[in-house]
Each structure stands twice: as C-alpha cells, then as structure tokens.
TrEMBL record:
Serine aminopeptidase S33 domain ranges (all copies): 27-141
Keywords, ordered alphabetically: Hydrolase
Organism: Streptococcus chenjunshii
Protein name, UniProt field: Alpha/beta fold hydrolase
Keyword presence, Acyltransferase: no
Lineage: Bacteria, Bacillati, Bacillota, Bacilli, Lactobacillales
Parts forming coiled coils: none
A single MF term (Gene Ontology): hydrolase activity
PANTHER family registered for this protein in UniProt: PUMMELIG, ISOFORM A, RE40534P-RELATED
Length: 252
C-alpha cells in the first residue's frame, strides 16, 4: 500500500507491505542509503529484504527520504540531520498509525547511520536493529574533505558539491563533520545485527567494527566477496536475506 507522511511541509512517500491490519504485533522499517531510494528496482537490496520478510509474515515499511525517490524536497537540501527528522516521522507513523507493538529498524549505508542514531534516541521503542554497511565513515570523509572520490576544502565548504550528477549541499558536509554518530548509537542496548561486505569500496568495514565495539548485544558478519550493496559472489545476497529474517523472527 502506498502511503504519504508529512514532515515540515514535505511529503514522504512510502510503501507499507505485508499487512492490512489496523494493529500490528511488529513491523520492520527500512532506510535507504545516500543517493538511493526505497528499492523500486527488482533485485535492489531493500526490495529483496522486503520480499523475504513479507514472505516470513513480517510487515514492512520502506520510504524515500526527503529529496529522494518520490518524496518531496530537493536532494541538495538533504543532510543526515534532515534524514533523522524524516525518520522521526516514520517511527511516529509506525507507532500510532500502524500501531506496531515492536518496531525494528533496518538501515543500509547512510540509512544505517540514521537508523543507528534513531535507535539511540528511541532505545525504549526500537526492539531490534540491523545495520548493513553503515556509512559512519561519512564523518571522517567530511573532516578530510572527500566524498566518493570528489575532493574539496573542508575548511571552506562550497554551497554545493556535484557527486555523480547529484548536487549535495554544503550543509550536508558542514553538519557531517561534527555528527555524534557513535555517541548517540551507544545509547541503544537492544540486539543488533551488523552486516558488511569485505570488498566494500564505498564504506570500509572498519565502520561496522566500530559499531561492534559500541554495541555489547551485537553480532557482526563480514561477507567475503560482497561489495557495498552486499552482492557479489553467488549466494551473498541470499545470506543477507537469511541473516536478517532469522534475526528478526527469532524471539529473544
């Protein structure tokens, strides 16, 4: 089912799948990465996960961050902080409209950073957390003045920087330099599943290793042969699907 959620005058587009109930026992909220979307293309990571989780009887909610996909706003205005604000509204929707008793967060890449911080802000609300190639190195990159191969002066950030045809606003880099990513994430003590590709050229596995050090109640899986989108060698994507499904469906 297509849904629209309002956030500060912006319309966030999403898909609620795997349920038609007024009240739900559980729901998984999925968050996409930098320059991404909720997974419209067949075979996209988030679409693969949704199909697997729905088949296992778990409701899902995936959405486009503002400025991305079919949501309102300009991509140039996107920051990690704006995505956190989007996420606050999505969690509110899961709590009060879907009326889910247990909410799970799943984030890929930058969506993993957002999910980790939201779990830190809502440690009493989020039941489980899955981080896939979480891009916490975005802070390190912003301090150095680099973004996916594009170099800039971190002490004199321009109004925007062009990254693969996307205008990324200067506010994105300015705020990224001081984000308290791991400090906020550490406030969450629930169960965490960390998955990273050993061949990830976008986000180094050290990001997940640092999360592992922060989370006492976590398991970390480094997938040999897998890249940033957690595919590569035959069966790697299926491994991700199996790990996520098992983690969420097994009661603790």
């Amino acid at each position: 089912m297509e849904i629209t959620i309002q956030r500060d005058g912006l319309s966030l587009f999403g898909l609620l799948e795997g349920t038609d109930k007024v009240e739900n026992e559980e729901i998984a909220v999925l968050m996409h990465g930098f320059k991404g979307d909720l997974g419209y293309r067949k075979g996209a990571l988030l679409d693969d996960l949704v199909q697997t989780l729905n088949a296992a009887g778990l409701a899902t909610l995936r959405f486009d961050f503002s400025g991305c996909g079919n949501s309102g706003g300009r991509f140039q205005d996107m920051t990690v902080l704006s995505e956190i604000l989007d996420g606050l509204k999505i969690i509110e929707y899961a709590r009060y409209t879907v009326k889910a008793k247990r909410i799970y967060l799943i984030g890929h890449s930058q969506g993993g950073v957002v999910a980790s911080m939201l779990a830190g802000y809502f440690p009493d609300i989020i039941a489980k957390l899955i981080l896939m190639a979480p891009a916490a190195t975005l802070k390190d990159d912003a301090i150095k003045g680099e973004c996916q191969g594009v170099v800039y002066d971190p002490a004199h950030i321009p109004d925007y920087i062009l990254i693969d045809g996307f205008k990324v606003g200067g506010d994105y880099f300015r705020t990224a330099q001081t984000l308290p990513i791991y400090e906020v994430a550490a406030q969450y003590s629930g169960p965490v599943l960390l998955i990273h590709g050993a061949l990830d050229k976008v986000v180094a596995p050290v990001a997940s290793e640092r999360y592992k050090a922060v989370y006492e109640n976590s398991s970390y899986h480094l997938l040999e042969g897998a890249g940033h989108n957690l595919s590569g060698q035959t069966g790697q994507r299926q491994t991700v699907r199996d790990l996520a499904c098992s983690f969420l469906k097994n009661m603790i």
